[in-house]
Amino acid sequence: MEARHVRGKQGLQWILSGFYFFRMAPLNWILLCFTYLLIGTTLGLVPYLGGFVGILTVPVFVAGIMVGCRQLDLSGKLELEYLFYGFKKYTSSLITIGGIYLVGDILITGFFMLRGGDAVVDMWLHGKRFDETELAGVANDILSATLFSLLLSIPLLMAIWFAPMLVIFEQMPPFIALRKSFFACLKNFFAFQVYAVTLLILGILAAIPYGLGFIVWFPVAFASVYVSYKDIFHHEQEEDIQSMPEGDAEESENKEEAN
Fold first, then answer.
1. Mind giving me the DSSP string for 86-137?
2. Residue 245 neighbours by CB distance under 10 Å
3. Whole-model pTM?
């Protein structure tokens, strides 16, 4: 299965389609996203291990949300139980992806501290605060370390982006899923640039009214991930499924889950 190339404007279309998905079941979307964020926040409060567990399980929860998106796409229904679908099937493969993501995140953090020097280490680990005179002196190091870390984060995000869906929908081994995800994103880099910039602008706007806009922003963002996957990997197949009568579409989905 090969990824197809799409035009840059599709990056905007993914977000518009994500909003359409949100409109199909807004209350269920809000409940699903709130539950996931609550779980993530709770894990973050657990000292030491909580953050690691949170990162390890990101692909598991994302895979469940994507299964919910596909069910919403096929039947118009979204249930909270799909959030935990990744804990029922392909869990080890999804955790493997989470482990690779965790290792990459640790390495990038290490590079960030190494690049930033002693000032960043003191600020990050010891919570040191700098006055205006000292801050001016370390600002360049902090900015350089931040840009360097962002540059390293892009390939990692490219490899992770489609990997949970390729595992749970295509039954791919995790390393093959990571490779295919990376090259699919590379092949459509301009579309993802348009997508990322648009999503960032919407995120800034969502934060203005006391952060209330994130009630819509998070569901749209999750749904747009599924739309990007469908557009790049299953454009023709999904068109065939959507053209089926409702009963045939549900039967096709049942066969996929059985396999």
1. GGTSSHHHHHHHHHHHHHHHHHHHHHHHHHH-HHHHHHHHS-----HHHHHH
2. 8
3. 0.83
Residue 128 scores a pLDDT above 50: yes
pLDDT single digits (tens) 20-57: 999 999 999 999 999 999 999 999 888 878 888 999 99
Q: Name the DSSP letter for residue 46.
A: S
Residue of 34, 24, 36 lying closest to 214 (CA atoms)? 34
pLDDT per position as a tens digit, 135-194 = 666 666 677 777 888 888 999 999 999 999 999 999 999 999 999 999 999 999 999 999
CA-based max dimension of the chain:
69
Do 43 and 50 meet the contact criterion of CB atoms below 8 Å apart? Answer: yes
